[in-house]
Amino acid sequence: MIQRTKVRGLRTEERGTPPIRPLPLLSPQSSVLSPQPSKGFTLIELIVVIIIVVVLMGVFLDRMLYYMEQAEKTAMVEVSNTIQSALVMQYGLILTRGQGSDVPLLARDNPMNWLQKKPRNYAGEFYDPTPLTVESGNWMFDLKTRDLVYVVRNANYFKPGKDGKKWIRFHVVINYEVSRLPSLKNAPATLTGTLFEPVEPYSWF
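^ thats the sequence. predicted structure below, dont judge the formating
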């Protein structure tokens, strides 16, 4: 007969239960308890960012000035075209009334007087003015030469005439033409029209 003997007082390891081990102590430099500090801009990276911003601002400013100057030229051309149309109307009225001898007077008149409404940037009449007489971007009439003058404000792409000044002088030109018919070759020249054009050629863009 086999006797069974009860074994008591066995250690935990012998009963098959895993032992409880103490957790290791973490040092103050451990990555678990102390997070890594975030990396900021270095001096070189900051300089590079500043250079890029400056370059972009320079390009933007240059484009903005370019379009502002184009807008100024467009506004100036619109006024000159309006004056040309008004000149044609004045010329037609004179011929309709049979007063052809009054046509040369158009060359001495102030073209702004032909407009129903003067431009806001018309500064008035002056005797022998200079570009500094009025603020740039304005029109004025020269009482000495009888020219209508526009003083350019944005002149980065503007090349003036022979006088080298940053303005454009306009005047009225009366055109005459000699007849091509043999029977009228000795007759005086015939009035053919009027033009409102620059006194000297200039370049703008």
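The two ends are 124 Å apart (CA to CA).
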